[in-house]
């Protein structure tokens, strides 16, 4: 059994696919909305250097990643140990060297990587126009405007992904999450009006 | 030398992997293995199954390791068929 097959087997016996998928969407959504909030906040603030925006966004992305990694690992490791202990009691044997024992050790790490990685990589995608601008790449819109557009696009895609999972119409779920992003953006714009 | 041709095991296993995956993993230990599993009892977290394995030369140690890897526990060997071969 190669590493990929082994991981698939461990995910299967621990029934962790759904948990990883849920964490990917919920924390990815958090990351996308946080970046949208930051970039829109800077957008309504006059004359902020792109490098300052980039540093603030990277700091937030790293904080989101660390929070996602640690919170998921701590909670999942405790849950998996409890489940393993209950199974060991039912089987009247030590399962430390079995696939279930391995899953109890590895699956929390995997889920933590998904939980911490999804907001981080989504944030990197959203702020990629700011980087491109720093390297002199000419963008069709300004760097902040492009980042905001990417954030809307990713939030829409997360909705589409949710639609695919739930088996409902993908466009409807995509538009629903996009509406949440638009409302968030409008609330931030109200700050400027106030 | 003798060869184990058939073996019937009483095994306790968790619900996951299911019996299909369990049988496949045992069968994959050797190309000639033929596996039949009967579920005898289902509890809250475990299943008691009877594994009937047929092959030309069953490697019991290897089967035991595969079952242990899937968190199964062999409770007893209920039947065996062994064919003896005269040394030449």
CATH fold title of chain B: Alpha-Beta Plaits
Q: Given the helix and strand composition of chain A, which structural class is it?
A: mainly alpha
Helix count, DSSP H or I runs of 4 or more residues of chain A = 6
Shape field of chain B: elongated
Reading off the top of the CATH hierarchy, the class of chain B is best stated as: Alpha Beta
Percentage of residues assigned to helices of chain B:
10-25%
Mean pLDDT level of chain B: 93
Beta content of chain A: under 5%
Question: How large is the radius of gyration of chain B?
Answer: 13 Å
CATH superfamily descriptor of chain B: MTH889-like domain
Q: Return Rg of chain A in Å.
A: 20 Å
Give the helix proportion of chain A (percent range).
Answer: over 70%
Largest sheet of chain B: 4 strands, antiparallel
- Provide the β-strand percentage band of chain B: over 45%
Count of runs of 4 or more consecutive helical residues of chain B: 2
The protein's oligomeric status is heterodimer
Please provide a written account of the structure.
The complex is a heterodimer of chains A (194) and B (88). By secondary structure, chain A is mainly α. Chain A has one domain. Chain A is 85% helix and 0% strand. Chain A is built from 6 helices and no strands. With 88 residues, chain B is of the alpha+beta class. Chain B has 2 helices and 4 strands; from the N terminus they run βαββαβ. The interface between A and B is medium-sized, with 17 and 14 residues. Chain B: InterPro entries: DUF211 (IPR003831), MTH889-like_dom_sf (IPR023129). Chain B: It holds the Pfam family DUF211. Chain B: This is DUF211 domain-containing protein. Chain A: It comes from Nitrosococcus halophilus (strain Nc4). Chain A: This is VIT family protein.
């Amino acid at each position: 059994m190669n590493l990929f097959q082994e991981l698939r087997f461990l995910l299967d016996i621990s029934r962790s696919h759904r948990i990883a998928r849920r964490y990917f969407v919920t924390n990815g959504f958090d990351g996308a909305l946080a970046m949208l909030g930051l970039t829109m906040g800077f957008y309504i603030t006059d004359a902020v250097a792109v490098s300052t925006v980039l540093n603030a966004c990277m700091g937030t992305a790293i904080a989101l990643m660390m929070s996602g990694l640690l919170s998921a690992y701590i909670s999942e490791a405790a849950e998996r140990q409890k489940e393993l202990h209950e199974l060991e009691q039912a089987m009247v044997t030590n399962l430390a060297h079995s696939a279930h024992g391995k899953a109890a050790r590895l699956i929390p790490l995997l889920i933590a990587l998904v939980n911490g990685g999804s907001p981080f990589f989504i944030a990197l995608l959203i702020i990629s126009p700011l980087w491109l601008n720093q390297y002199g790449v000419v963008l069709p819109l300004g760097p902040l405007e492009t980042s905001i557009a990417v954030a809307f696009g990713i939030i829409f895609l997360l909705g589409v992904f949710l639609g695919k999972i739930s088996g409902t119409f993908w466009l409807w779920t995509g538009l629903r999450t996009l509406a949440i992003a638009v409302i968030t953006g409008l609330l931030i714009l109200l700050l400027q009006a106030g | 030398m003798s060869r184990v041709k058939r073996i019937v095991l009483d095994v306790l296993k968790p619900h996951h992997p299911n019996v299909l995956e369990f049988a496949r993993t045992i069968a994959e230990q050797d190309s000639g293995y033929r596996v039949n599993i009967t579920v005898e009892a289902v509890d809250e977290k475990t299943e008691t199954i009877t594994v009937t394995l047929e092959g030309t030369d069953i490697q019991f140690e290897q089967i035991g390791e595969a079952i242990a890897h899937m968190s199964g526990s062999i409770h007893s060997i209920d039947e065996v068929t062994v064919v003896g071969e005269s040394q030449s």
